[in-house]
Amino acid sequence: MSRGTLLYAQSGGVTAVINATASAVIAEARAKKIKVLAARNGILGALREDLIDTSKESAASIAALAHTPGGAFGSCRYKLKSLEADRAKYERLLEVLRAHDVRWFLYNGGNDSADTALKVSQLAEEFGYPLTCVGVPKTIDNDLAVTDTCPGFGSAAKYTAVSVREAALDVAAMAETSTRVFIHEAMGRHAGWLAAAAGLAGENPDDAPQIILLPERAYDEAAFLAKVKQVVAKVGWCVVVASEGIHTADGRFVADAGGAADSFGHTQLGGVASYLAGRVKAELGYKVHWTLPDYLQRSARHVASKTDWEQAQAVGKAAVRFALEGRNSVMPVIVRTSDAPYRWKIEAAPLSKVANHEKKMPAGFIRKDGFGITGKARRYLQPLIRGEAPLPWGRDGLPKYVTLKNVAVAKKLPDWEG
Amino acid sequence: MSRGTLLYAQSGGVTAVINATASAVIAEARAKKIKVLAARNGILGALREDLIDTSKESAASIAALAHTPGGAFGSCRYKLKSLEADRAKYERLLEVLRAHDVRWFLYNGGNDSADTALKVSQLAEEFGYPLTCVGVPKTIDNDLAVTDTCPGFGSAAKYTAVSVREAALDVAAMAETSTRVFIHEAMGRHAGWLAAAAGLAGENPDDAPQIILLPERAYDEAAFLAKVKQVVAKVGWCVVVASEGIHTADGRFVADAGGAADSFGHTQLGGVASYLAGRVKAELGYKVHWTLPDYLQRSARHVASKTDWEQAQAVGKAAVRFALEGRNSVMPVIVRTSDAPYRWKIEAAPLSKVANHEKKMPAGFIRKDGFGITGKARRYLQPLIRGEAPLPWGRDGLPKYVTLKNVAVAKKLPDWEG
After folding, report:
1. Which domain holds residue A103?
2. Which of A197, A313, A390, B317 is most exposed by smallest CB count within 10 Å?
3. pLDDT value of residue A260
4. Which run of H or of E encompasses B137?
5. Is the domain of A234 the same as that of A314?
6. Domain boundary among A356, A372, A395
7. Model confidence pLDDT, tens digit, residues B47-68
8. Domain ends where: B294, B319, B336?
9. Is B139 annotated as a binding residue?
10. Where does the UniProt annotation locate this protein (chains A, B) (predicted)?
């Protein structure tokens, strides 16, 4: 007789290490003789009863998953509304879980996903269905409440700091006759964590990036241009890191790429660097180059942080443990116990404290002039990019990433008419 | 009595490994007891008599230079015209070389720089000044004639192939409810080498990148959109790599970022991916993400190719050897002697055969439909991204890059009134 199955799903934007979490979840459950199903494309796969039997994957594939970026089972941007508004969907979800004897549901995502996991657990309770729901943290935005940091962030932060340090050496070499100003656009809708991490690239006041623009501070064009001019006069060139989410004092995004909104109601951003480059060129006359790394910054497993990679696995392992212990509606969070030496542990936090919250950078992390980070921010951020996560390279000069078989489980229910 | 000095200068866009060449030049010259001066900001430093005494740098710094991206002595975009048109500048150059007893001039750059080195050598001969001029190849564009490949290209190629492979895993995970099409913009004004190298990211026809747009083929929007639609229908998503230099049949660049031209008369490009993204969204309705890596692709020493890194050092070492042997107006070039196993050697080529030529991709490297590379291209490109160039990482999670002291040599001449 079945002891029950564990359902794992990935949600929202993927990261360089979300599969490391998946790998840890599957390995830990296998060790406990628990069968793991994965929903294809996140919660949508659960609604559609489109489930993957991870027992068809070899141990080698599951191990390789730990160093493969992207989302191995597919992710989704699909937000369930309140229990009242989306009741039919929640009930369908429960029906699918029941049909496949799912006793443990692990949802790996950001704050929207924590909210979904919480609601599923509430409905299961209402129906008297024995289900343990555990949220598993993931987001390069680092904006989840309670947890000290979010798996995925440290690697994107390392990518950003390394890239900015490298590009700055390029700009410094070209500045005399060519590019004077370089602008790097970092992801981050409402919280500037990733842009802030670029600050780790420099150690002294004149080191790049000399200017960081954060969504936590209103964008003031005159002040920005004056600062660029001042840096170029002193250093000879200037590197700017701008968060995609910066906005003016009246709340308007500095660059809104067409205004299309995704199904979460988020506007699709991008184009801040391009906009700023145009302003610098027009007002100050400097030659400007700019970069929009976009998905490269969150999928760059080749430069992933070891700290981040270890934490991504730790939350996966802990999530399975919490689930099997029946700790319902919780999320394994990272608790920092010491900055130097850097020490951390995993604890369980109630999902209700994580769901739908957004953690912005504390005011004490932002320099008074608004264009950089403080020593306090540096002490917080520094350990997160430490170490290089192991990665096997092929003889062809490319990382050895795995593609899973993703064998579908036979359906037991009628098609979903979502 | 002085045995004469060797002057080294960097020119044009810098790369992840041009400093590896510089490191090899200095180390080789030191071994031969030859003093090396470096011109600050390329040929401009020579004209201004702004020279750096590299003997002030420690052996450790010169060794660290081998893994530091950017241009350690500064580069420039400054093209000298013909001997007739810029006679005064060439004569000033000779005056500076003579004042500092420069007997060997090594100019590290692309085809414009090869032309400058050639002209300096012609003028020296005319004046009876004993000078040996050697061009040293460098360009991520891979468009120099004669040499099998150009130092700098292999690392940018590896960055591009790795980034595209990683981003494709991200897109594949998101495609069901979000991004269907991802567009990566690669550098390359007139030759599509770098965009072509992205083709190494995939092995099978449906692997990313499913579409590569090269400047060697006219951009045909209808055919491009039809291909995107076809790939999305079959694979579920599509990754496009577009060379910044693609143009329509009538020769117009697909995206011209404002039309500003640099001092070489090159238009400043950038914006192809953004333009294509807009067209795909408008015509096909897919959600699109795009990336413009810009300087990140040429400064990413953290993911440099070992082949490229070794070749960058080999041309530096050979350049010193050729110079000391008095082989005037030559450039060390890479000669491939075997594809599998990959074997190469260095030979000397006359600068006249390199200067002002531009090597495009052979027709046999481009797939018949124009959207991908052939097996022949793959056999050529594959060895160039092989191996991971060694890189020391700091305990802070960042690569250990060196900043030289760059101590100026005392001036002996009146200021240049350029």
Report:
1. 5-138+303-356
2. A390
3. 41
4. strand B132-137
5. no
6. A356
7. 999 999 999 999 999 999 999 9
8. B294
9. yes
10. Cytoplasm
Secondary structure class of A9 (helix, strand, coil): strand
Same domain? B78 vs B174:
no
Write down the pTM of the prediction: 0.96
Please report the ipTM that was assigned to this predicted complex.
0.96
Q: How confident is the model at residue B190 (pLDDT cuts 50, 70, 90)?
A: confident
Dist CA A104 CA A124 (whole Å): 11
How many percent of chain A have pLDDT more than 70? 96
Q: Please give the helix or strand (H or E) that residue B197 lies within, else none.
A: helix B193-197
- Do A89 and A53 lie in one domain? The reply is yes
Mean pLDDT over A265-272 rounds to 58
The mean pLDDT value for B19-43 works out to 98
- Same domain (yes/no): B133, B64: yes
Q: Which residues of A touch B303 (CB under 8 A)?
A: 302-303
Q: What is the CATH number of the domain that holds B289?
A: 3.40.50.460
Q: In A159-255, at which residue ranges do the beta strands (DSSP E only) sit?
A: 179-186, 211-213, 238-243
Which residues of chain B are within 8 Å of residue A386 when distances are taken between CB atoms? 395-397
Helix and strand numbers, DSSP H then E, in chain A: 13, 13
User: Residue A326, by phi and psi: left (phi above 0), alpha (psi -120 to 50) or beta?
Assistant: left
Distance CA A392, CA A389 (A): 10
pLDDT value of position A270? 53
DSSP sequence for B59-104 = HHHHHHHTT--S-TT---------TTTTHHHHHHHHHHHHHTTEEE
Nearest to B217 by CA among B238, B192, B200, B197: B192
Which of B11, B178, B238 is best to mutate for the A interface (most A CBs within 10 A)?
B178
The rounded distance, in Å, linking the Cα atoms of B396 and B235 is 41
Buried b (16+ CB within 10 A) or exposed e, A152-190: bbbbbbbbbbbbbbbbbbbbbbbbbbbbbbbbbbbbbbe
Q: How far apart are the first and last CA of chain B?
A: 32
Give dist(CA B379, CA A380) in Å, integer.
47
Of A320, A296, A169, the closest CA to residue B298 belongs to: A169
Q: Is beta strand B179-186 parallel, antiparallel or unpaired with respect to B211-213?
A: unpaired
Within 13 Å and on the Cβ side, how many CA atoms surround B94? 21
* Chain segment A65-105, per-residue pLDDT in tens: 999 999 999 999 998 999 999 999 999 999 999 999 999 99
Q: Please indicate if any CB of chain A lies within 8 Å of the CB of B397.
A: yes
Number of folded domains that form chain B: 2
pLDDT-derived band at B270 (thresholds 50, 70, 90) equals low
Percent pLDDT > 70 in chain B is 96
- At residue A257 the predicted structure's pLDDT band, cuts being 50, 70 and 90, is very low
* Burial status of residue B282 (CB atoms within 10 A of its CB: 0-12, 13-18, 19 or more): exposed
Q: Where are the beta strands (DSSP E) in A262-393?
A: 267-269, 287-291, 330-338, 343-350
Model pLDDT, residue A51: 98
Q: Express each pLDDT in B356-407 by its tens digit.
A: 888 989 999 999 999 999 999 999 999 999 999 999 999 999 999 999 999 9
Say if CB A74 and CB A10 are below 8 A apart: yes
Q: In chain B, which among 51-80 make CB contacts under 8 A with chain A?
A: 68-78
Same domain membership, residue B86 and residue B19: yes
**Do B9 and B50 fall within a single domain?**
yes
Peptide bond into A341 cis (omega under 30): yes
Answer whether A206's CB lies under 8 Å from A372's CB: no
Same domain, yes or no, for B158 and B127?
A: no
Query: Residue B381 corresponds to which amino acid?
Result: L
- Distance in angstroms (rounded) separating the CA atoms of residues B144 and B150: 7
